[in-house]
């Protein structure tokens, strides 16, 4: 288990007084301080880690957020931001001496501007709700994490979430135009707007993916796209994961950029099929879902080309969606694949790493060996088009020792990703989960530079403590970072 | 999800069942998105995931329910939207049912809450008592403005003019017209019989006209006390119905047990589970559940002829939660209405509850009225001529808010195939 920073006993002792002070800043129903009720907030989507927070605060307005943050700064109290609590890296995991600041009440769609192709929403609006709000006019918001029904845009900004469509349309960072956020000092700041670029440093890029370490986002302006005239999906089944991986590489190498290109292995196919009855073939080792979008003639042409490439790579099942309902059914299984694995295993540990596409067969083969070594099953779901892997390690938290083995297994997978020239995360963030592996990816100088940036926003390190960075040292101690491994890994690789 | 139950705790079959349900939850949070109370209140304690946590804690500790836990569990509508959304197959319905029973058993509610719940459980399942209560309420209605907004006022608001009993409002056999194709039991119901006798009348006309013999059997299905956590009264009512139906099954035989209120249908389809550990009734209850059909499911098997009269009307179809989430019936009602010549539209956020939810609108008027306003606005935005649904609770909840006539789906099907024009449509 990854250790969290030791709580400050003086803060813990003041719990009731702190709750009482919060009640002077917020409505009574927005402050939760009883252990029994706070337990519902003790974890997010990474249930292996649980911690009852100091207090839960659920403000309703930006001004209330600013008031709470100004007060918290004065009192030296730490803050853990939380959206819908669907993080898979423990990004919203509470800390014992920190207030969980939940944005569940920020649910308003504030502005829809078709002329500028933007939507402005409060951070608690779900990813899918943005697309739903503009659906009737023929628009949508492109990044679509699998949890899009529940995950919020605020959380998407914090984690720089991706989704199946990011291969073609980019991650959250490529689709956010403006933010309002509250700094750790309690100052309300607006950056960007409805335009593509702003003068000065790219603060939008900095805030997006900052995992709640730099401030609290209270308003988001995103770009929306017109829905493609046609979208059709192909289901391609292969007798081996290697063949599927080679097919993916060949499609990309042919210059085709599908709207989405996803791969599932046998256990994931079976779990998803049991939930949505998407009509997936159950006798293949790997299933590719390739979506092509655009005008009808273009889509027809590309489908032909993808089918031809698949045939060269030994495809055994090939089906093209003929109706919109069928296309959505193809995707429904993939979108629900993570929790559907909950049907075949009481618990699972969802990994998130990214590798160069060409390394896929090697990584899959190594994962099979690890699965045997640790005695735990693994189901694979991945954004094949961009090399983002999501192995789901199956375990049972009620069996002593299984969680530890699952974590060791997961760490091995992520180290392998780094070893083949990839990175620790694709879209779930580092959070708690990959925190201690940051030193495997980055050297001391890299980490120190990132830490300086953190200090520029949060000088007393009160925001989302214990997340992302392995060592917590005070901002004044810069330049004296304790380094576990002196050597720099992959000095020839460019950083960022 | 990890659970912590002792072997002794797991010896209780109800706890063992709930433990299995809890273990299926992976805490992904998908359920929060479609939960009406989370959408309104934005607090995870008022979401399925939060409630699952509260229930888990309560059952693991084996302690009496606290006031806080009761507050959050009471806010649950039991709309079961979470079950439609949950990819891990968490059977929230059985979990919340168990939790409600635990609350009822171990928590002493304030006297006014206790009295109100006892009163509702005493009156609603019994048509005669309900009719008398409504008459009383009608007399009190002019004085409703002296009451503060809250439960009592919500109850008086609900009390409308009581239609007189319909000629068909009796138990007994209604023979098929023409050649008999099937023989079914029709659950006569309780509150619906009083509030909208036209529904059963239309059902009987529609079925008999299409060659189905209808055996009307009386009694409440037990759903109302069930959702109040009152296990024994709800089991007694259910057992009585099971007895009547099994007698018919073993007598002249039944092809289906037809239910025309989806809230009741959800309950009857769950009898097999409710009586699973009852050696005397388990088998019969399972038989009954297996034969239970919503009226639209059964009528779909009849292949109704093309409509004898085209109305040209556009219908806003409101899918009751017990229909779409409880019984997962989404296609049939719309397909039947379309085949009967109506243009069917659905409101935005069709998955969200209208706030009726059994006795919820009486017990949680603040949340229920927000959900009602939201649903009424999305239904009105369809621009339809009338609204149809398959559950009397929703009809009562929405009748005065949607600004269009509200009817039961079966009334339209009856009308389109030769029955009278539904009264609610007036002479428009």
Describe this structure in words.
- The complex is a heterodimer of chains A (496) and B (428).
- Chain A is an alpha+beta fold and 496 residues long.
- Chain A has helices spanning 9-13, 15-25, 35-38, 62-75, 127-135, 153-159, 166-169, 203-207, 241-253, 266-276, 296-312, 324-335, 337-340, 360-374, 402-419, 438-441, 444-457; strands spanning 31-32, 55-57, 78-82, 98-102, 109-113, 118-121, 139-140, 176-182, 188-192, 216-223, 225-226, 230-238, 260-265, 286-294, 315-320, 347-350, 353-354, 378-383, 388-395.
- In chain A, the strands form four sheets. In chain A, strands 12, 13, 14, 15, 16, 17, 18 and 19 form an eight-stranded antiparallel β-sheet that branches.
- Mean pLDDT of chain A is 91; it is low at 479-496.
- Chain B has 428 residues and is of the alpha/beta class.
- Chain B folds into four domains: 7-106, Alpha-helical ferredoxin (Fumarate Reductase Iron-sulfur Protein, Chain B, domain 2, Orthogonal Bundle), CATH 1.10.1060.10; 121-158, no CATH class; 172-300, Rossmann fold; 314-425, Rossmann fold (3-Layer(aba) Sandwich).
- Chain B contains 25 helices and nine strands.
- A five-stranded mixed β-sheet of chain B has the order 1-3-2-4-5, with helices on both faces. In chain B, strands 7-6-8-9 form a four-stranded parallel β-sheet, sandwiched between helices.
- In chain B, strand 8, helix 24 (392-398) and strand 9 (406-408) form a beta-alpha-beta unit.
- Chain B is globular, with a radius of gyration of 21 Å.
- The N and C termini of chain B lie far apart (56 Å).
- The mean pLDDT of chain B is 92.
- At the A-B interface, helix 13 of A face helix 3, helix 4, helix 5 and helix 6 of B.
